[in-house]
Amino acid sequence: MRLFTRLALSAVAPLLLAQTALAAGVNGAPAPFDKGGVKVALVSYISAGDFFQAYQAGAEAQAKALDIDLRVFPGRQDAAAQREQILQAINLGVSAIVIDHGLPESLGDVVQQALDKGIKVVAFDVNLNNPKIPQVEQSDHELADLALKQVVKENGNSFKAGYVYVAGFAPLDRRNEVWDAFKKQNAGVVEKARFGNVSDTTATSTADQAKAALAANPDISVIFAPYDEFARGVKLAATDLGIANKLKIYSADVSTADIQEITEPGSPWVATVATNPAVVGAVSIRAAALQVAGQEVPHQITVKPTLLTQEGLRAANVQTIEELAKKVPAFNASDAVTASWIPDKLF
Ligand code: SR1
User: Is 55 in the pocket of ligand 1 (CB under 6 A)?
Assistant: First the structure.
């Protein structure tokens, strides 16, 4: 063999071996997962923030365990770009697309194009209203209900409140239904200010709005901020205004950074209700894989959230999401959409 050919082969051989190892498939899995290398796209609308990064990491871990070739399209809160990315995924010849958030009105026709080509679709937190598309959610009604029960436990049912909300995002809209019902049932709860912003700078923009709202309404003692970026913004504002000791913030979501903000001395962020977003990402990929394998997937897939209080986190000395996962089984794994052939030891 000529020297050049030998050198070229020796350089390529490890790559070929790596590819073989990567595309080895999953033992005992049905086609096409027995061969591996199934292409799946994850198309997100929001990619900034702890929740969405952890969701993506969980999706990647589950994809790796299933020997899926996962193509990630990061969102930039740009509806037109998300449509374009779905078309790109279709052109790549993916077998399934997971759509993570987005605006339903701008997705319907491109999602239909995917379905028409036999591509399986899974929706997380975006209502695509199609019986062929399983919907993944974190049981948002229960999430808001648990948070508001904790509000009443700690503040009674007569107080002035601030509320952080942006309409048009399915999980926030569902949580809002519970907030509306809560106010109807508790006439002593007065919503004095409502604000919110979802962007690539959600926390800091919300902080600016919160500062104005809290300065104008010094009698607000409770803030319902059911998204961790919102809660982080309100906490920032309360600290800047020097009123952290007069305010209690209740939120959704959790991350290692959130745990640190909740448990630090004097923090006004007293409770959150959350799932492990990495587990939700893994569940979304499993829903896609099961459909590709031709197996049954329920239309509504829920990952149940858990109430985490400042007091409880401090008492258990939990400082990271990994420590939380060791203490609370629901943060480690979900039994939603599993199968014997799907590896579930991810984290
Ligand atoms: C802008 S929507 C933000 C929410 O999406 C996910 O459901 C997270 O729980 C987050 O609160």
Answer: no
178/211 same-domain check? yes
DSSP one-letter string for 133-199: S-EEE--HHHHHHHHHHHHHHHHTT-EEEEEE--TT-HHHHHHHHHHHHHHHH-TTEEEEEEE---S
CA 32 to ligand 1 center in whole angstroms: 32
221-258 per-position pLDDT tens digit: 999 999 999 999 999 999 999 999 999 999 999 999 99
Q: N- to C-terminal Cα distance for the chain? A: 46
Atom of ligand 1 nearest to the CA of 137: 7
Inform me whether the pLDDT recorded for 21 exceeds 80.
no
**Nearest CA residue ID for atom 2, ligand 1:** 169
CATH number at 205 reads 3.40.50.2300
- What is the Å distance from ligand 1's center to 186 Cα? 26
The confidence score (pLDDT) of residue 7 equals: 37
Atom of ligand 1 nearest to the CA of 252: 11
CB of residue 145 inside a 6 A radius of ligand 1: no
* Ligand 1 site, residue 58, Cβ cutoff 6 A: no
Residue 287 pLDDT: 98
CA distances for 5 relative to 8, 13, 14, 15, 341, angstroms: 5, 12, 15, 16, 41
CA of residue 179 relative to chain centroid, distance: 20
Domain that holds residue 185: 140-274
Q: Rounded to an integer, what distance in angstroms lies between the CA atom of residue 149 and that of residue 144?
A: 9
| 283 neighbors 61 (Cβ within 8 angstroms) | no
pLDDT at position 268: 98
Domain count, the chain: 2
Residues 205, 253: one domain? Answer: yes
Quick one: tokens of 285? 């990929």
Rounded to whole angstroms, how far apart are CA atoms 34 and 39?
Answer: 14
User: Ligand 1 centroid vs 154 CA: distance in angstroms?
Assistant: 24
Which residue's CA lies nearest to atom 5 of ligand 1?
171
Element (DSSP H or E) covering residue 58: helix 50-65
Indicate the pLDDT class of residue 8, thresholds 50, 70 and 90: very low
